[in-house]
Amino acid sequence: MKLFDKKKNRRNSNSKKWDRYHSKDILPMWVADMDFESPVCIKNALRRYIEHGIYGYHSEPKELRDTLKKYLNKKGWNIKKDWIVLTPSVGAPIYSIYDLIPKTSQVIVPTPIYLNFLKAPKHLGRKIKKLPMKTENGRLIIDFKKLLSTARKNSWLMFVNPQNPGGTVYSKNEIKELAKIINKKNITVFSDELHCDLILKENLKHTPLGSIKEIEKNIISFYSASKTFNVPGLNCAFAVIPSDKLRGAFKKNAQGIIDDANITGLIALSSAFSKGWKWRDDLIKYLNLNLQILLKTLEKYQNADPIIPEATYLLWVKIKNPKQKNLQSHFEDYGVGINDGIEFGKKDFIRINFATTRQNVKKASKRIEDALINL
Ligand SMILES: Cc1ncc(COP(=O)(O)O)c(C=O)c1O
Question: Regarding the domain delimited by 2-36+277-373, which CATH topology (the fold level of the hierarchy) does it fall under?
């Protein structure tokens, strides 16, 4: 476990997460990156690239598509290699996808949701239909009945699995139930599966939505090494689009607007997905212990009600906020930089990123206690 306990100063290292509070004693637990070094396999692969010294226009690593095909095969989805479209991020397509969605189409966005799914339509002046999620047995999930009654024929759906900010991992049965609705209403889905390798509970498994044969052609799925292996700064992700028509439209639209994935990101992706899994298993153990520390702290306070995440390193907590304080500022006043739930479309919630050293988590727990006592 020493690996993740290693203290690494991220101040003055061009870290968005840490620079927000560069001269303040505030522990940053907001944006979703981790305070851990990436696995050695990534560092070695990047070192080889850096040492070469010539950084010209790149082609993709030869073995990459085979690695990605194998990766999805293990998750029960047999894809064709030419269904893969490399992208610089998942964030960029969250915006650019609207070029493919007719202006008259209904776009359903379950809330709360990763903030860019709310920012993009606002920025683009596009209407969306928000679908509030429900909490059932301590899990934040889409209300499938509501989805069925809300969706029109040929709607679009923004789907995040594992969910951010709630950390839900949809079960195979839930995926099948969703697939039935997709089939019935001919819904096209933007399926963001970016966090799928960060499942915290051993008995849970990720089911790619696209692996359900009957709806395969309706799904545009997104994956990346960025969250699991902590390389979001290297700008690389990939889409899997089985429909020739959708894939063609997506690629045509991306030309000249969304640039190619970065070569350093492609190298990291290729090496992580072939050699990084043992490191990932150790990471999951470390994250689970961090989570336990935070949950133990929160359970002492009536004004904090967490959703226990099944995946991700993000903890979504309902806060009793009788004085309607600005939650971000309030927690900052006590030395912790969290995300206010309002960013994800839900007030009186906070999101805590617990992917940091145990020492920081312990320190943060004390500060969170003080913040809760003084709400
Ligand atoms: C669910 C989800 N989708 C997309 C993104 C953005 O991914 P990228 O860094 O590839 O743009 C994030 C980042 O936190 C996320 O949590």
Answer: Aspartate Aminotransferase, domain 1 (3.90.1150)
